[in-house]
């Protein structure tokens, strides 16, 4: 199949992009890398009136470092982050990115694009929620920041308004004594996960985020000794599908979560053998 007809706009500023989205009255769609959007268009699962290409907007391709955080602009490619020192400063990003599709897709796909697409089986939304990242949205009334854990509203549903643009995501940098773990199970490498987990251990506490197990990333922050099979099972609330049942995903998630919590704990205690 081919995409339905659409208009094309290539603004040179964020304000112009927002104005174009506002004029489209809900019929606009932002494109940056296009690795998620283009297949959806080709299958006619989305039929926007206009595509707003943000690649010509200066500054959105920057990686900025501040006091305790790293900020990625909307057009920063996943492969750029993978090869940049920022993947060491935010280790969970470095652990997760090799699992995102394939290298060729990561060379065009963007971190913010994956967040805005909000596939419930995608890796980067889970990383953002696990680390409590914040997202910057630009709209007609100016900019606002939204916590990642409040951004995802359901399968491919977010807090982004139809006239808003996701311009950046800000991840906290790791602190001494932090430990991280990341793993997923998929039918083939590059496929979306049947179940996956992102883990952050700090002191005696752990934050774990599951993906592929619900209609959005599922996050729990608890003490290490509070991670029980019952807690892990409760996090998996999908009804299952043709690829895996709920019970099978629960078994996968239990194994992945326990293994990565143990790994992250060893790293946090400088005992990763």
From TrEMBL:
Spell out the protein name for this chain: Carbon-monoxide dehydrogenase medium subunit
FAD-binding PCMH-type domain sequence ranges: 1-176
InterPro entries reported in the protein's UniProt record: CO_DH_flav_C, CO_DH_flav_C_dom_sf, Diverse_Substr_Oxidored, FAD-bd_PCMH, FAD-bd_PCMH-like_sf, FAD-bd_PCMH_sub1, FAD-bd_PCMH_sub2, Mopterin_DH_FAD-bd
Taxonomic source organism: Amycolatopsis sacchari
Keywords, alphabetical: FAD, Flavoprotein, Oxidoreductase
Instruction: Please list the GO terms describing molecular function.
Output: FAD binding; oxidoreductase activity
